[in-house]
Amino acid sequence: MEQIAKGVWKAVLGEPEELTPVYFREGSIRSEALESMGEANLPEALSRLHYEVTVRGITVTISMSTTEDIYGFGLQLKSLNQAGRKRRIRVNSDPPADTGESHAPAPFYVSSAGYGLFADTFRYADFYMGTSVRKGVSADKREVNQKHEEFSESALYAFKRTSEEREIIIDIPGAKGITLYFFAGNISEAVRRYNLFSGGGCLMPMWGLGVWYRIYGGSDQVKALSLAEEFRREQIPVSVLGLEPGWHSHSYSCTYQWSSMFPDPDRMTGELRSKGYQVNLWEHAFVYPAAEFYDDLLPYSGSYEVWNGLVPDFADPSACEIFGGYHEKNFIEKGIGGFKLDECDNSDYNPSNWSFPDSTSFPSGMDGEQMHNAIGVLYQKLLNRLYRKHGKRTASQVRSSGALVAPYPFFLYSDLYGHRDFIRGMASAGFSGLLWSPEVRSCVSGEDLLRRVETVVFSPQALLNCWRIPNPPWKQVDTAKNLADEWMENSEYYTEVCRRYLSLRMSLLPYLYSAYMEYYLTGRPPVRALVMDYEKEERAAQIDSEYLFGDSLLVCPLTLEDGTERTIWLPEGRWHSFFTGEILEGGREYTIHADYDEIPVYVKDGALLPLAQPVPYVDENTVFQVRIRSYGSGEGSFILYEDDFTGLAAEKGDYNTLTVTRDQAGKITWKREGKEPERYQIAGLWKEGAADGEM
Ligand code: GAL
Fold first, then answer.
1. Rounded distance from Cα 342 to ligand 1 centre (Å)
2. pTM of the model
């Protein structure tokens, strides 16, 4: 093994392929940040790693202890702790069961044994995480007359730790070699090292953290503008307005030319921008014959079509130049803030021509199998590079993703829709550098809408995807009635609650921006599973219905199925209810009641929490009026980051820090360092037990 940075090692086994995630990695390893994390060693067990190259491919084995917990593998909607499971790293929008396949599987895991492992491949790889025992290991097991419970269905399928040592098997058919990267440290450190190895967390523009609203697919330019006005009039904060397929003159596959429903797109974009909106455009990567650059792209695309469109070979620089150059000139230079790349996720389920076969060949030398795991990643790389070229950050969406994507400010979303699974995604995605959005889409009732809005407000991206309905869901959740402009009976109540939660999201922006800046600087994900911060507490290992949001908030959402009650578990220490101030002692479970318009959120004892006066949107002139909430006593601090919120200067260290500190005596002070203009004004202080505004 060769050490390539502090805490990061590399092992080249056999003859690895050339076109891999590291080959295409955009950023460079953030060596300084890795350096500042200090010394770390890999566990001794890794020195017993074996590999074998056969006609099938390459297989690597690593020993695994009976107590090891495993997390990661990208977005995993069906399970969190992967010990004892087999994970298949294959992009698939419709996984039939908990196989590991998802919109964004990644060949990266982190183990409680003190390391993380990344297998540098776009191939479909299988990871057997202690599921397998070699012949002979069981030879001396001779007891007979097992207890009856062993045969019960629940006992058979329950999560089991084993008594014998096991193996992790990494099986990559089709490859004659693999480069493995190892990241030392506990779960949180290994994840941070993986993210810093990827290039660090993304620089997210502040506006991307505001509220997103995707409008009805059948809307024209007039309707888009009138909805934008309605939000401002009704004081519903919205930062990003997303257009759906109808803006293309042909979509599925795409022309990337405005349809007749949008006769003057530049004027529309200008008007929306002047009202504080960023515009996001839906698209496919699949290029329709009527698209302007179809002929140019023809030689740089795959050997199969999707929806009669070309599949660009994003591994080929010429394809990137043609597809990217068109986007740059026609959209980026005209003020479009970002894109939503849809249906790039290898659908197995849909009939007809939704995807290209694994046998597809691409001019770069990639095959269809590799491209399925790569297309979303390479698209992010291309688009991110184009925005950066113009000195801007984008905030965009993508429906497939995978390895080494932490530096890309893209949110991942899905067409699957289980609220419970979406919450689990919040805990699982953060292990592998992914930003998951549990978008609000169709809802069966007003209560369902509230539950989903509550979750989305405490998520990486606060998105309402209303592509099926012309009116906001708080007016009507039923699609047919919404289309007929019929409102729900209690629409005013739902509007009020949604306005309250979306405004809360805007209040949380300075806090969240700090969490994202930390992601950028240190690799620590802004949204995390509990086990990442509380690894020493045994219960944390399995918690997948709660998650950490930023530095000090713990979120326990409810779903419609939960009704108004759920069990929560809190780690050791005192926790303060964000909404009521009630104090709970951690290290145990509670059964909590929460009405449909309430979400249980807890603040860690000792926290300093900045909350802004809500703004309807964020632009380059926004100055937040921030109140600091102080929880508990003792020394504490919180850093707010001030910069232009949209450009790349922060990468050169061009930002202010505004550090809020509480000393032993409970006195709170703040200090600004740097030269950027002030973006936050401390407008007040709230201490538990003190009257509002008392310092
Ligand atoms: C879906 C996508 C939706 C919406 C729709 C438009 O596949 O997930 O969010 O964009 O396509 O046709």
1. 7
2. 0.97
